[in-house]
Specification:
By secondary structure, the chain is of the alpha/beta class. It has a single domain, classed as Rossmann fold. The protein is built from five helices and five strands. The chain has helices spanning 19-29, 42-50, 69-79, 94-103, 115-128, and strands spanning 11-15, 35-39, 57-61, 85-89, 107-110. The chain has a five-stranded parallel beta sheet with strand order 2-1-3-4-5, sandwiched between helices. Helix 1 links the parallel strand 1 (11-15) and strand 2 (35-39). Helix 2 packs parallel to helix 3. The longest helix has 14 residues, at 115-128. The radius of gyration is 13 Å and the shape is globular. The relative contact order is 0.19.
Amino acid sequence: MNDNYDFKGKRILIVDDEETNWLLLKDSLEETHAEMQWARIGQEAIDLIASGERYDIILMDIRMPIIDGFEATIRIKKLNKNIPIIAQTAFAIPEEQTNCIEAGCDDYISKPIEIMELLKIIDRYIKKA
């Protein structure tokens, strides 16, 4: 299914408080050969970027406890404005998409995630880098 997408040598940070979502994304993107890392909460993602970890793209869940995806995105973009952040949310309403972009997300995908659509989005931003 993912034969057309080879992200070997690329690093993807998946930020999601739900382990099932992490496992689904990890399994779905495995054939792309990307290196994937899971951050369970927004603060963990912020800390990784602040420590100098390099990622080619971040998949950011919006609805998380304590520091939500909006705030995590704002803080990450202050540390590294060039890293693409793709918001992922189950709230597929126009205001949610607007809020994601205003927080600094580069793109948006609604849950349940259509993997081929996600691959196209990732590919578009990884090629820009």
